[in-house]
Amino acid sequence: MQNLNLSGATGLAAVSTLGCKINSIESVAMAQDLAKDQWKLVSPTEYADLYVINSCTVTAEADRQTRQAVRRALRQNPLAQVVVTGCYAQNEAHECAAIPGVSLVLGTDQKYAVAKFVRMLRKADESERVPVHIDRLTSLPAALLNGFDSRSRAFVQVQQGCDRSCTFCVIHRARGPSRSFAEAHVLRQIQTFVDSGYREVVICGVDLGSYTA
Questions:
Q1: How big is the CA angle at 118 (ends 63 and 156), to the nearest 5 degrees?
Q2: Residue limits of the Radical SAM core domain (predicted)?
């Protein structure tokens, strides 16, 4: 589980990452989005007003860890808002919404606008059922990442989704069809990291073999 720390003023927020390196990259994007909205990010092991859990769903154990992360967050602050996003949320949205204490469920594409959805949540009537925002998996984020906790190695996602539809795997449902980031976007992201002092860049994707420039 990766801990992300940034600064802001709206409240205290924590982003927890379960699963793969792609989830770690997306958690950094969510942390940046929250920081722009004036949230102060703290460790998931600390008290926070908002907990965002970026879930994995490759195994039943991964699903269990998401439910465990929700319970852990609420032990730290029983009044906190808890957002579940990621692959488990995408595939089993209403199951995630039924977890006691969950305030909001976001699909794989919606996680990039987490701050907007949290603002909507804070304005909503508390008596409403848990909001679920799941959409077709067709988009790619446009924003560039600023960096990672490590100052020596950065990760660049160049591809999302999978077309293989293997019967033993649920990732094609959680991530959608294969789609590639534009070459210009990839090069801008790499240059951003180089300019920030990173000496190593790791190329990542759900199915790198299907990348097309």
A1: 65
A2: 148-213
